[in-house]
Structures are given as structure tokens and as C-alpha cells.
Amino acid sequence: MSTGGMETGGMDMGGMDTGGTSTGGGAPLRGPKAPPRRLLTDWTTTAGVAGDGLAALVAADDAVAEAIHLATLGYEVFVLDTVTPDDSTPPRVHVVPISAAEVPDVWHDRFALVVADVASSAAVVPCVAEAGLLVVIGEAPVPSDLAPGLVEVRVEVGPDPDSPVVERFRAVHARL
């Protein structure tokens, strides 16, 4: 399943330095060396998500591992984080040291896939391209104003596969 028709070529970064590189993953803790959250990887696998030639934005705390996962699916990924990239990162992962509230207007309507946490979801809704998706992962319950202006596709609530004692949700919204 493709997540939209937005190409990444010539993407205007709004005068922002993207750091030019990215970070790697592998340990069980959160942070740049952590594996991606299974609530995202399970969804990309079951939904058949593919991002060849498309751009994705990741706006969630400690989400560099999720960005790297999306790059393995073919996306050019921009992740909002303050980590320092290292040489082990895929070239298609760009760490941008800003908050979701600081995303430039030129990024609006530019991303085929946006992955966010509850705290940043409203700020990055404008970044979702036409026919694009917003995936929000957070602790239950699901807030009512999660993705203003987008159409709810699916919301799932249950134990977090990475920490079964915590109940989390995964919500998918689309710009139609």
C-alpha cells in the first residue's frame, strides 16, 4: 500500500539545516539506539506500507528508531529530535532539531506519512499531504481532538506489545 502521491524531489526545507545525516538503533531502551516501537512496525507490516519516492515526518519523543524503520520502507524521513546523528544512520533519515510547533509553513501538505505522539499530533496535522496518513501512538484513552480536519480511518486500543502492562492506542487518520 502506498501512502500518497507526494514526491520528495526538491523539497524546500524552509531554510532549515536538517543535519544531513541520521542515527542508528538496536538496544531495548528508548533513544537513538532503541528498536522502533512495535505499535508502528506491526502496523506498517500488516498494512503493507511502502514509501518509495515519498516523504515521511516523525514528530514524537525518542523516535529516531521509528524514522530509521520508515527509511527501510523507502521513505525519505525527517524526524524532529535533538539527537546528534552518527555515521551508522541511513542517508534517508534527516534529524531536524526543532519541535513540532516550529515546523515551517513550507512543510504543510508535503508528507505522505506523518507519525506523531499525542503532544505533537495537532501541530503536524497541516503537514499531511493530500491522500496522506497521520499515525498517532499514545497512552489510552484516545483524545477526542486528536487530528482536527482529518478523517479517522482506524483506532485500536490495547496492551502495548513492547510493555503489556501499559494500555496504548494507535490511530490512523487520512487527508482525503
In words, what does this structure look like?
With 176 residues, the chain is of the alpha/beta class. It is built from 3 helices and 7 strands. The chain has helices spanning 38-47, 64-72, 118-124, and strands at residues 55-59, 76-80, 93-96, 111-116, 128-139, 151-160, 163-174. 42% of the residues are buried. Mean pLDDT is 82; it is low at 1-30.
Which characteristics define this entry?
disordered N terminus; alpha/beta; 7-stranded mixed β-sheet; 3 helices; 176 residues; 7 strands
Structural class call reads: alpha/beta
Strand content: 25-35%
The helix content, as a percent range, equals 10-25%
Rounded to the nearest angstrom, the distance between the terminal CA atoms is 16 Å
Mean pLDDT: 82
Q: What spatial order of strands do you see in the largest sheet?
A: 3-2-1-4-5-7-6
Shape: globular
Largest sheet: 7 strands, mixed
Q: List SSEs in N-to-C order.
A: HEHEEEHEEE
Rg, rounded, reads: 15 Å
* Poorly predicted residue ranges: 1-30
Number of helical elements = 3
Strands, count:
7
Chain-wise SSE layout:
Layout: H1 38-47, E1 55-59, H2 64-72, E2 76-80, E3 93-96, E4 111-116, H3 118-124, E5 128-139, E6 151-160, E7 163-174
